[in-house]
Write a structure and sequence with these properties.
CATH architecture: 2-Layer Sandwich
Shape: globular
Strand content: 15-25%
CATH class: Alpha Beta
CATH superfamily: HIT-like
Oligomer: single chain
Bound molecules: adenosine monophosphate, zinc ion
Distance between the termini: 35 Å
Strand order of the largest sheet: 1-2-3-5-4
Helix content: 10-25%
Mean pLDDT: 97
Largest sheet: 5 strands, antiparallel
Number of strands: 5
Radius of gyration: 14 Å
């Protein structure tokens, strides 16, 4: 069920413009509007799930699919190689830096990532 107020639900529905790089019946991947790396794509479930706290056992396949789509996007972006590589990030809560309340997996690459994250 789409959330009327949710920007990512609107992107999934095509009601807000975005640069979609992949979409199927359960997930959508689109470029982050404020990229933190040369490649910065968000993979989201098409169904509104607010945060990681709202994931249930029934979502396990969906979460696994999001991971696989993230690697496919990385392949499309030519960073799915050992000499390039990328980082997958899921934020939660204030310390995690969560801003948008619709679960999203960040795919970040195209530059060397620092560790630990800032
Ligand atoms: P987070 O801090 O994990 O909640 O990340 C939310 C991300 O969503 C940020 O990187 C934002 O730049 C990104 N974002 C917010 N609005 C849009 C939008 N309309 N299109 C694409 N990315 C967005
Ligand atoms: Zn939503």
């Amino acid at each position: 069920m789409a959330n009327q107020e949710c920007i990512f639900c609107k992107i999934v529905a095509g009601e807000v413009p975005s640069d979609i790089v992949y979409q199927d019946e359960s997930v959508t991947a689109f470029r982050d509007i404020n990229p933190q790396a040369p490649v910065h794509v968000l993979v989201v479930p098409n169904r509104h799930i607010a945060t990681l706290a709202d994931i249930t056992a029934e979502d396990e396949l969906l979460l696994g699919h999001m991971l696989r789509v993230a690697t496919q996007v990385a392949e499309q972006e030519k960073i799915h190689t050992p000499d390039r590589g990328y980082r997958l990030v899921l934020n939660y809560g204030q310390d995690g830096g969560l801003l948008v309340h619709h679960v999203h997996l960040h795919v970040l690459g195209g530059r060397r990532m620092g560790w630990p994250p800032g």
